[in-house]
Design goal:
Elements (H helix, E strand, L loop, with lengths): L20 H12 L6 E5 L6 H13 L14 H7 L6 E4 L10 H11 L9 E5 L7 H12 L5 E7 L7 H4 L3 E4 L5 H12 L3 H10 L4 H9 L1 H18 L3 H14 L2 H22 L12 H30 L5 H11 L7 H12 L2
Parallel strand pairs: 1-4, 1-5, 2-3, 3-4
Helix pairs in contact: 1-2, 2-3, 4-5, 7-8, 8-9, 9-10, 10-12, 10-15, 11-14, 12-13, 13-14, 13-15
The chain binds zinc ion (ZN).
């Protein structure tokens, strides 16, 4: 749990949740007024804090000692066990691995368990994670539960984009849309609530693209920050490599990484190419990777804004194609062949490397 400022006895602001206050207010009012829906769909980009908010909501629903209507205490047995995802009335369903498939058998098993009455909570909570990974059979199976919901059950479903689900599922859920925060606002919160140093807070907020969940992970795990820089260094190396090497890299990525991991790579590359286009517009204030400014400047000087925008678009397109059924290796090959050929001066990538390694 995020540590909040709990010096007084007042309930924690915004459920100790960073940002998306309107979403928290809506959920809090449902609990306070006893107007709980059968199912909630938490939609938003991965890392924005969908699961965290779903769990806070579950705490508010099942807290044994709420300080006031719609709040949770954070210290009772129910609050503890829910925060640690081991409450006996919490059922968690997800694809076995990120980027895998959520199968129909998993939904059927869930349905069986949900038919039992709660052990100790007021409500049995089903937390279904990354529902975009559910295949059509699994979606159809869940639809049955939504049509004939068992009593005293609340379904909390997290999903990247509700548009990719069966509309009949979406229409039976209260959709809670979560958005990334402005990087400046997120950085400010990290300074206030996490006692982060200002430059580090600004850096992780930018790297996370305003997604609070990712920002917290980067803040507390320096090795994750290092990995982000490594991703950009690898990308710069790719831009300087021959077509033969690019084919080999596409083959290796397709073999070693799954869709979800490739999506994370693409997100980092998108942020980098956005930096290039910002830089072309003389904007040095909002760069995600200021440590790579030399490389960015060299790219702008070499290929200009138009060609940089094109690269940005191509990566964006690949990210969209990836959501569908696609031959990963082929898609990567096409992208890599289209990206500009840029052997950057050694100094541009090397100084970035050295800076990135400074803690
Ligand atoms: Zn509690």
């Amino acid at each position: 749990m995020v540590k909040g400022d709990n010096s007084s006895n007042d309930p924690p602001m915004n459920w100790n949740y960073i940002g998306n206050a309107a979403a928290v207010a809506l959920l809090r009012s449902h609990v306070a007024h006893g107007s709980l829906r059968q199912a909630y769909l938490f939609s938003g980009p991965s890392g924005v804090g969908r699961r965290t908010l779903a769990l806070r909501f579950a705490q508010a629903v099942n807290c044994l000692n709420p300080p006031q209507a719609g709040e949770f205490c954070g210290v009772c047995r129910a609050c503890h066990l829910l925060a640690e995802m081991r409450h006996p009335d919490l059922e968690i369903v997800a694809a076995e691995q990120r980027g895998g498939i959520l199968r129909v058998e998993q939904i059927r098993e869930l349905q069986h368990r949900l038919s039992l009455s709660p052990y100790e909570g007021r409500y049995r909570i089903a937390l279904i994670l990354r529902f975009e990974e559910a295949n059509l059979n699994a979606q159809n199976a869940l639809l049955k539960t939504l049509e004939e919901p068992p009593p005293k059950v609340i379904l909390l479903i997290t999903v990247e984009d509700s548009e990719n689900l069966l509309p009949t599922i979406v229409s039976r859920c209260e959709v809670v849309r979560l958005r990334p925060l402005a990087a400046e606002a997120l950085a400010q919160t990290l300074i206030e609530k996490q006692a982060a140093e200002a430059p580090l807070a600004a850096q992780v907020a930018r790297l996370a693209g305003g997604r609070a969940g990712i920002a917290l992970r980067l803040l507390h795990h320096p090795e994750e920050r290092q990995r982000q820089f490594q991703v950009i260094e690898d990308h710069l190396r790719l831009l300087g490599s021959s077509y033969l090497d690019r084919f080999a890299t596409a083959e290796r990525y397709a073999r070693e990484l799954n869709k979800a991991e490739i999506t994370l790579l693409l997100d980092a590359w998108l942020a980098f190419w956005r930096d290039v286009t910002l830089y072309a517009h003389q904007d040095r204030q909002h760069l995600t990777y200021p440590d790579f400014q030399d490389a960015v400047a060299a790219i702008v000087a070499k290929i200009g804004e138009e060609r940089s925008l094109q690269a940005l678009r191509q990566i964006h397109q690949m990210r969209q194609v990836l959501q569908g059924n696609v031959n990963l290796r082929l898609a990567l090959e096409v992208l890599f062949l289209n990206l500009p050929n840029l052997s950057l001066p050694q100094s541009a990538t090397q100084s970035a490397l050295e800076e990135a390694q400074t803690p």
